[in-house]
Amino acid sequence: MVLFLISAITTIIIATIMLYQRWWTSNIPPGPKPRFLLGNLHQLKPHWTHSFIEWSQTYGPIISVWIGSQLTIIVSTSDLAKQVLRDKDHQLSNRHRIARMTQSGNDLVWSDYSPHYVKLRKLCTLEIFSLKSIENFRSLREMEARSMVMSILKDLKSDDQTGKPLVVRKYLGAVVLNTISRLMIGKEFESEEGKEFKSIVEKEHLLSGSGTVFDHVWWLKWVSSWIISDKEFLSHKDRRTKWFRGAIMEEEDVAVEDHAGFVRKLLVLKEKNELSEETVHGLIWNMFTAGADTTAVVIEWAMAEMIKCPIVQEIVQQELDSVVGSERLMTESDIPKLPYLQCVVKEALRLHPSTPLMLPHKASETVWVGGYKIPKGASVYVHVKEIGRDPANWINPLEFRPERFLLEETDVKGRDYRILPFGSGRRVCPAAQLSMNLMTLVMGNMLQCFSWSSPIPGERIDMSENPGLLCSMRTPLQALASPRPVTRVITPLTLD
């Protein structure tokens, strides 16, 4: 009798699970056939986006991919993106998190859409990203851009650098990181601290784009810590914590009023028990990682494109010479009078968005998109890079042609679903305007002060990408920099 009851109960449970699974997976978008436990993990290339593109060509613009036991929906047209980010935005504003990379989701980037998220976003907007705050810190960004130019001039004059190409990423990474660090903590990092930070972030992007079956099969997450020890990730986590405590919170025991930058505001809220220590640390890490690399990556791609296409560089320089002249450096107040330079930034964001898949959304309830069901708990990716290269929206989409944005006013901050480098809807990047200003200023200064060319004429620039969350150039861009007349104005400063 007991055995009969056990068998009956087991049969009922299995039948219930099978019926639920059949209901849960019915009417979902088409996609490659998954394997038990692995899903489609075994079919994914190191660059997941390449696999998604191939499958979209086979199954259509909305596809289902099983990352282990996690159902993942990828949409790759502007119309579907509009449904995800506008029409169903409320139901699709949560975050899918992998515990080892995203912690508990108490920060801004990885938290679900909740009162906690709204509170953090409002805080960041008021303190850093509002138009008033952006204007207040304008001189800081201009000073850092000027320092970048001086650093390039100094290296060009050094004996061991004469006639040699410069690694462009070195200067872009420094100017962006210095700008953010001064906003956040009121000072720049020491040289070694900055190098260590860049190395840690690069490693984190690579880890976020990989993972094991233990990260993606729900029941294995519970036992993975008993079966394996992810030494690579644990080592990375310890390294990140050590850097953070040394470079950011080294003065945590100092009185709050002696701190500077955004950290001071966060510590005040921590003292009032309005923010936890975990949230403070997570928020600071968000600001550094989300801002530093993403901005520098887009500028590096843009510089590579202009070295490949010198005519674009010449048009920008002609515009700068006409509007700004050669007696002073370009400032942010010049940006509205430099339409072609703004177009270059937009074109770089269209062709080379820093996060080609956007961050993963998660369904808080079952919704329908494109005529297909997205069950509660499913992850949703918007393939931003593919949308920006869709021939249905863009003429000659694979060509770098900034003038396309002169023909019509195009918003790149979330209102035009053909180009979504900053996302859209409730999870749109709050730093979009700040990022646009910084990219335009840095790029303008680089092109006003120098002409950039390939070290070996006729040699093809390696435009391949690194795998991972961030779409950076696999081979750092190297270029020859020839000073232009405006550098005479700032040359004496390099000798101080």
Describe this structure in words.
The protein has helices at 2-25, 48-59, 78-87, 99-102, 115-129, 131-136, 138-157, 168-185, 191-208, 213-216, 218-227, 231-247, 261-271, 277-308, 310-323, 339-351, 384-388, 432-449, 487-490; strands at 62-67, 70-75, 94-95, 166-167, 361-362, 367-369, 372-374, 379-382, 450-453, 478-483. With 496 residues, the protein is an alpha+beta fold. The strands form three sheets. Strands 1-2-8-5-3 form a five-stranded mixed sheet. Strand 1 and strand 2 (70-75) form a beta hairpin. The radius of gyration is 24 Å and the shape is globular.
Give the amount of beta strand, in percent: 5-15%
What CATH calls the topology is Cytochrome p450
Tally the helices: 19
Helix content: 40-55%
The largest β sheet comes out as: 5 strands, mixed
Based on CA atoms alone, the radius of gyration comes out at 24 Å
Global structural class:
alpha+beta
CATH architecture: Orthogonal Bundle
General shape:
globular
In CATH terms, the superfamily is: Cytochrome P450
Number of domains: 1
Strand order of the largest sheet: 1-2-8-5-3
N-to-C terminal Cα separation, in Å? 93 Å
CATH C-level: Mainly Alpha
Low-confidence stretches: 15-20, 222-228, 492-496
Write down the secondary-structure element order. HHEEHEHHHHEHHHHHHHHHEEEEHHEEH
Quantity of strands, as a count: 10
How would you state the average pLDDT, rounded? 85
